[in-house]
Write a structure and sequence with these properties.
45% helix, alpha/beta, Rossmann fold, single chain, seven-stranded parallel beta sheet, 15% strand
């Protein structure tokens, strides 16, 4: 049921690959709430994914390929988006992450550092690139909102989350630092959402992912937050109801982040 929370707003969604993606669910939710959209992903992801189906379901939203580690691509993306919208952008979702070390099965104590540089560039520094390009082009509307997706491994050790934990920690730091500067310049707010482990194409590539989900479910008073739940939370952060929220890492995990132990976990350990 729509409440038109984003009526008249215009946004760019990075990272929708298929209907398991949080970015995909967020785009659908934003459109249902009245937003106009531009969809983007890396050119190779556009070939591998099903984003044209999403575009059709979101009012024939334009699909513009852009490599998040290429400033020229990002500049062209913002130029084309502003031309399509006829003005500045109200919100951006950064749902981007990739680890070659995880793909290659490299243990955290034996990383390929060339791979690690790519991971940090794609998964974290890309947020700085997006913000920097938008900032330099004055592409965001006043009181605009930028949201990036993260995970609690930025604060706690999850051994098999590997180097992505480092990337998420950097991502969260960038959101705070750039959030200050963009807030001063144009009241643009930047936040990260620390989501429950979610069955997406990217998440499923992490070793022991089923264990992540099962453990988090047992440790969360409300259970794990779904991709659809996360999409609705993103909408709230794009809306005018959260205009004074910025530079925050917001846990969206059913209470996992502040739960020491649950009765269910205790009972399982005592079996």
């Amino acid at each position: 049921m729509s409440n038109n929370l984003l009526k008249g707003k215009k946004g760019i969604v990075f990272g929708a690959l298929n209907d398991q993606s949080i970015a995909w669910k967020t785009a659908e939710c934003c459109y249902a709430e009245g937003a106009q959209l531009v969809l983007t992903n890396a050119p190779i992801a556009l070939r591998m994914g099903e984003i044209n189906k999403l575009a059709a379901a979101c009012g024939n939203a334009p699909v513009i390929g852009a490599d998040v580690v290429n400033n020229d691509d990002l500049k062209a993306l913002f130029e084309q988006a502003m031309a399509h919208f006829g003005g500045p952008i109200d919100f951006v979702l950064h749902s981007v992450g990739m680890s070659l070390n995880i793909r290659k099965g490299k243990h955290y104590t034996d990383l390929n550092h060339d791979f690690q540089h790519k991971t940090l560039d794609i998964s974290a520094l890309s947020l700085h690139r997006v913000c920097q390009v938008a900032y330099s082009m004055d592409a965001m509307a006043e009181w605009g909102s930028i949201v990036a997706l993260t995970y609690i491994a930025a604060q706690r050790v999850f051994p098999d989350y590997n180097e992505m934990a480092d990337a998420k920690a950097l991502l969260e730091s960038i959101s705070r630092s750039f959030g200050y500067h963009y807030g001063v310049k144009k009241k643009v707010r930047i936040n990260t959402i620390s989501q429950s482990p979610t069955r997406t194409t990217a998440g499923s590539g992490v070793k022991g992912f089923d264990g992540f989900i099962s453990f988090a479910e047992k440790m969360s008073p409300l259970g794990n937050a779904s991709a659809d739940d996360c999409a609705q939370y993103c909408v709230s952060l794009f809306s005018d109801y959260t205009r004074m929220v910025t530079m925050q890492n917001l846990f969206h995990d059913g209470g996992f982040s502040f739960t020491g132990v649950t009765q269910e976990v205790i009972e399982q350990m005592e079996k």
